Amino acid sequence: xxxxxHEIREAARKLLRNKQAQLVIGFEEGSLPLRGRxxxxxxxxxxxxxxWTSFSDINVARYLAKRxxxxxxxxxxxxxxxxxxLIKENQVSRDQVIxxxxxxxxxxxRPRIEAEVGHKAIVEVEETENRLTLKGRDFEKAFDRRExxxxxxxxxxxxxxxxxxVLVGQLVEEKVRESFPDVEAFTAxxxxxxxxxxxxxxxxxxxxxxCRNACPLCYCxxxxxxxxxxxxxxxxxxxxxxxxxxxxxxxxxxxxxxxCGACEQACPMGxxxxxxxxxxxxxVKDLFNYEAGVSLxxxxxxxxxxxxDPDQFTVNP
Amino acid sequence: xxxxxxxxxxKERLESLLEDLLRDHLVLAPTRKGELLLLEKIESAxxxxxxxxxxxxxxxxxxxxxxxxxxxxxxxxxxxxxxVPPPAEEKQILFxxxxxxxxxxxxxxxxxxxxSRDPYYVDKRIRTLVVSMACVNPGPSCFCLSLGGGxxxxxxxxxxxxxxxDRYVVEAASEKGKAFLQNPSFEEADEEAMAxxxxxxxxxxxxxxxxxxxxxxxxxxxxxxDPLWGDxxxxxxxxxxxxxxxxxxxxxxxxxxxxxxxGERIRIWDSCQFPLFTQEASGFNPRPSEKERxxxxxxxxxxxxxxxxxMAGCVGCGRCVTECPVNLDIREVLEKLSRAEAQ
Amino acid sequence: MxxxxxxxxxxxxxxxxxxxxxxxxxxxxxxxxxxxxERFAYRPGQFAEISVxxxxxxxxxxxxxxxxxxxxxxxxxxxxxxxxxxxxxxxGDMVGVRGPLGNGYxxxxxxxxxxxxxxxxxxxxxxxxxxxxxxxxxxxKAYGDLTVIYGARKPGLLLYRRDLETWGQRxxxxxxxxxxxxxxxxxxxxxxxxxxxxxxxxxxxPENAVAVVCGPPAMMKFTLPVLRDLGFSxxxxxxxxxxxxxxxxxxxGRCNVGSKYVCSDxxxxxxxxxxxx
Amino acid sequence: MKESGTxxxxxxxxLCNWCSYAGADLxxxxxxxxxxxIRIIRVPCSGRIDPLFILASLQKGADGVLVSGCHPGxxxxxxxxxxxxxxxxxxxxxxxxxxxxxxxxQFSWVSASEGARFAxxxxxxxxxxxxxxxxxQLVKNVPGGSFDVAAHS
Lengths: 317, 343, 277, 153
Prior knowledge:
By secondary structure, chain A is an alpha/beta fold.
């Protein structure tokens, strides 16, 4: 058992025992190799289900909205950032949550590992320090986990929780401020190439809405794709409607997206959803000097303005 | 001849067989699109990927596509003209689907066939030959055995291929399949091959770790208000992954896509996991939360369909297990329901 | 192969605004071909899917009676996309119709029985169909006593005013109208009270009788125990359910309730069937 | 669409009631000529514009969209256009990024007294969109003139 797992369990046990929290939301082992999953602990005797692995990759802040009880949340950097936005948007009250902060060293990119072993069935996984051993029926392969992190985790500059009440483990060193080489590289492509890429990615989408439903900040009671009067977006999988869904969803997350990757990770079809979000994260930073989910005090960029905001994009005859 | 419903296909003849079929068939087979393994129309035998397990999408996509035109219309000056697309002429082959997917077609047959036949499905179905690939190496999420199928089951297939290493044993499971075996690519099956196939079949079955879905489940499902449902569904995101990728889920919506005077009526997949599925125009929703919707999914599959169509709405393919974004494992749900006493 | 998803065309002959709030209109439709008319042999309690091309389809129970086979009537409450579009249509416009769908009321089982029809609000439309069917001179003798209890929220929301007047003058039918509330100005002389209470005070005899209930969920829920108290057995209480439906032929899965589909197994169920679901 | 050669674009123009709409009116009563390419939708403020309005226009076959509001600092509701400006900047960037033809969606500020400016904006916007030709990228393919059953299935 890792030290972090141990410390998370102890923190949860204490909070439940002292009745400081009625519910602990954290991670447990999944039912399959390479999988973790959210878990909901209400009794002290269940605390040992909690674990911390390279697969504790779901954004659990998603489960906070509309709860009545006092909740302790096991939060890595991105969970805590989502929580900051939720608090700012009055979806969660700060007093209602006890944050068990976990410094995060990145989560493993499951699809990439699966491709690495040639899509063979993985039956068992062992994790020790930075070593990951995968076993199948007729193979065994070991990896350095640091080489197989999600792209978003490699680029992450908020690995430590930005907000916490209890800290487990030791804070890790943060990377230097992120630049956006991916966005710049994509921008440099021909317009036709960019459109073709997005059309192809959109073409994979099956409109299951896993991206939206996994997103900690997509909490609208009625999503714009679901309204019928008027029906803004058609329900079928044609390029036009599907792309408009992704564009507007990305736009609704402008200045709010904390780059946790819950969307792309939930997507069963491997659609490059973050392509759009990353562009908006960059523009929000460049144009309005704002970064989502890092400060409780700073106003959200689309809820405020500045007289000197950029204007060059308008037509000036 | 040992058995007239069995034959041998040497692996080196697979490509020429497929090329041959491609001449006058629409052939759908597992193929890679980037990292995705999809059951899709192939252009060349070389696109086929038979070894990598099940495709991301299920075989239902071939017969019950996510989006399908029911008819086109033109409505002008008090006149309406409706045009129904003519049924496809081309024969199609689903090549290399897994036995779970083939078995799933039986449920779709029961739903879309039967009373008031669904012409869109049935037209395609009668033109379709299903050649499945037995699973000699079932994955950790597979549980077909728990639902009456098996890694080498022939239910729903016309032919089943079983990999012996250098060749396939091919068994026909229908008259259509038998007729197909007349193709000169196949050779006569020999005793040794058949015995080897049987051994592999047994091994594949014993390598599986079926979920223990007890008889008690049936009785337990009678208790709609079981408090266990709340605990079971706490992590559910309410997305449509499980139902859209499921080989048996078949719920759909019908809607119009319109320009000013012309348009089309389409049907598209829908999911019982979405609030809009049952929400009435007044805003009232008989299934207001993930709990009721998840329960409906389980009930429909394991209680209603067995009564109504004499077959569970689940073939144990495990797609919902591997693809659920939060790993809400249906096997565990069923096990818990089979185990616990109703309260 | 017969395609059950393709509608045939009908022409709007007349549009009757039924209620004072103009939210419910009855559309009188005529067939455009003799074949369509012949194929559309229906019984009260069945429904049809009406298409507004470009907007979609929605299910409506037939409010007309099969004894007048030239015309179909549908009462439409303006709440959603299709109903909104229907409400803006005019005389002469074309709509698509698919049907008849569903099981309808089991007329064979009603023969020589006393019938108690209990309707609330908009749910009364198929009971109007049934009432007019039974009152037809060819049919009346085949059935026993006929009691109709019908309520709306306000007097101005009662449907089928003309029918109600005619029925009120007949001696072979006991008609009890009620409203939940009345205004001072509307001059309502009749009953004031909720449908379940009216059923209790009318107290129809369960002897050789069948009760048919159709109305909003709350009304059905509270009427049920009253009927049971009066001695009606669950087999003799029929309910017409309303659910979101799409295909109308038991395929699309939307209206699944237990192992039944409201569209193809219903919409009419006996209470004893519903208890088992 | 007219015969080839005489094609002119259809442009949906969302105009703020308090400025650009009045500006368009002024252009009209001042008899200032500008291309008859725009279909005006009056909105109470440029802050009312939801990106969905713009995208839905393109889906339904508009060749371009123009959004025009009050000059920054002159909003009838004080700050509506300031908020809108931030949204528009992000939207414009996003649409460009995904490879939508850049000039399909354009924004401008025109006051109630600027009839001539309004005409010039329309001229410029029309010229750019005309140069692009009919929009294809986001248009939703509904069986149209050909009424072709085989297509799009």
